[in-house]
Amino acid sequence: MFAAVRVTVVIPTYQEAGNIEAVLRGVRASLPDARVLVVDDASPDGTADIARSLADELGAVDVVDRPAKSGLGSAYRDGFRRAIDDGAEICVQLDADMSHDPTLLPVLVANVELGADLAIGSRYVPGGRTVDWPGSRRALSRWGNRYAAGVLGLAVNDATAGYRAYSSEALERMGFEAVRAEGYGFQVEMTHRLVRAEGKVVEFPITFRERTAGESKLSGGIVREAAGLVVRLWLADRRGRRERRRRGF
C-alpha cells in the first residue's frame, strides 16, 4: 500500500535502551517499507548500539550519532533534513518511549497521502485520550493546548502532540529549519509555521500512554519555554500584520 510513497520515520532518542527494540519492531510491523532514522544524542545506556544491532534483521534502520544531548527540536530538524535529502516524501515523528502506538502509523501516512500537509495523532479530539497520567499533568497539557491555540488562532486541538506525519514538500515550504524551539515548544512552533504557510492539518484520535520504561524528559524548563514561545509568536504575528497593513496588503 505504501511502497509508492517514500516514508521515513524519525525517532529521537536519549536513554531509551529499555524501549528502542520494541518501538523499532512496532514500526517495521506497521510500515514494512518505511525507512527508520534513529537520531541519538550520545545515550550512555547504549540506545544507539541496540538500534544498530537490529538493522540487519529489520532492514532500513539507520542511526544518526550526535555528540551530545542537544534537544528534541534539534533532533527532528537534523532527522528531517537527512530524510528529505535521501528522498523521503513523508516524514513521520514518533516518540521512542512507546507512548505512541506504532500500529497507527499507516493512518498517519494515509492522511498525508490523501492530501494533508500535517497529520496529527490527537489526544484532544473526540475519541482521543491519555492513559496513566496524573491529573495535574493532564490539566497542564489541556491548558497548554488551549492557551496556544487560543492565543495563536491555530484551530488545532493538540498543538503539542508529538505523533505526526508531514509531507516533505510542506516541511520545505514552511521553512522547518528556521524553527528553534525544543520540547513541547517545538511542536507548537512547527504547527504555527505550517498554519501560517496555509498548510492543511488533519487530526485523528489516539490513546496516549505513559511510558513504562525509562524516565520522562519533561521538565519545568520545557514548560516555561513553551509558554514564553507562544507570546513571542503572537508578537511576531502582530508585527507581521502591521507590516502588511503598512504596505497595503
Key features?
Spore Coat Polysaccharide Biosynthesis Protein SpsA, Chain A, 9 strands, 45% helix, alpha/beta, two-stranded parallel ribbon, 249 residues
Secondary structure topology:
Elements: E1 7-13, H1 20-30, E2 35-40, H2 47-58, E3 61-65, H3 72-85, E4 90-93, H4 105-113, E5 118-122, E6 129-131, H5 135-152, E7 164-167, H6 168-174, H7 183-196, E8 201-205, E9 207-209, H8 220-246
Parallel strand pairs: 1-2, 1-4, 2-3, 5-8, 6-9
Antiparallel strand pairs: 4-7, 5-7
Protein name: Dolichol-phosphate mannosyltransferase
InterPro entries: DPM1-like, Glyco_trans_2-like, Nucleotide-diphossugar_trans
Family: Belongs to the glycosyltransferase 2 family.
Poorly predicted parts:
none
Number of helices: 8
- The CATH class assignment is Alpha Beta
The fraction of residues assigned to DSSP E strands is 15-25%
Rg calc:
18 Å
CATH superfamily heading: Spore Coat Polysaccharide Biosynthesis Protein SpsA, Chain A
Q: Into which percent range does the helicity of residues fall? A: 40-55%
**Overall body shape:** globular
Overall number of structural domains: 1
InterPro entries: DPM1-like, Glyco_trans_2-like, Nucleotide-diphossugar_trans
Domain Glycosyltransferase 2-like: 8-174
Organism: Ilumatobacter fluminis
GO molecular function: dolichyl-phosphate beta-D-mannosyltransferase activity
